[in-house]
Design brief:
This protein is mainly alpha-helical. The protein has 8 helices and no strands. The protein has helices at residues 3-23, 29-36, 41-73, 77-98, 112-121, 124-137, 139-158, 160-202.
């Protein structure tokens, strides 16, 4: 196996791991169950399929057009990284304190797109990470990492009932809190990197 292929695979693994941690499908299992507990298995599958398709579309659109969008609005990647980090930090703290992002929902319409696809799966952290992956590793690694993470997420959603039973309510909450700690650390890192890059540009 050539050095280039090994390097590409390594970059895919790194990009996918970070994105997977931020998407956090295991940590969101209790939220997924809470949002779809009154639905049939067929309805739940349709919603989750929609969520994955919308999530893939959103991540790839931002990966390819994120920089252009920033230029239109006069936003730098550093500013977006700090903003994404702050929102991700708030999200992680809310999960740590309350155990979930959403306490109830009044309607099942559009659940696949909002809030499951966005912001649960594809929030500012995932968008920021995908844009940074695109800049750091290129188009191939970004696409493969997005598809890999979303495939794993689809499998988790597909078997969310047995996973929830296996983990149990306590296990799911523990995983959600642990993943939230990781998210908080990643969020702080985003903020620090964004600030450091900004300071470097004015010095």
């Amino acid at each position: 196996m050539s050095e280039a292929i090994v390097s590409t695979l390594g970059n895919v693994v790194k990009a996918a791991i970070v994105l997977f941690i931020i998407v956090d499908p295991f940590g969101n299992v209790p939220i997924f169950m809470g949002l779809t507990e009154k639905l049939t298995d067929s309805e739940r599958r349709k919603i989750f399929n929609t969520a994955i398709l919308v999530g893939i579309a959103l991540l790839l659109v931002f990966a390819f057009t994120g920089q252009e969008i920033f230029l239109i609005f006069g936003i730098s990647i550093n500013s977006f990284q700090v903003a994404g980090g702050l929102l991700l930090l708030i999200t992680s703290l809310k999960i740590l304190v309350s155990g979930s992002l959403y306490e109830s929902t009044d309607t099942v319409e559009g659940l696949g797109a909002v809030p499951i696809a966005m912001p649960l799966l594809v929030g500012p952290g995932a968008i920021t990470t995908t844009i940074l992956n695109f800049q750091s590793y290129g188009i191939l690694v970004t696409i493969v990492s997005v598809l890999t993470v979303m495939l794993l997420t689809w499998l988790i959603l597909r078997y969310v009932n047995p996973i929830y039973r296996l983990l149990g309510k306590t296990g799911s909450v523990v995983i959600a809190r642990v993943m939230s700690l990781l998210l908080a650390a990643i969020a702080v890192q985003f903020i620090l990197i964004g600030i450091a890059h900004y300071l470097a540009t004015i010095n």
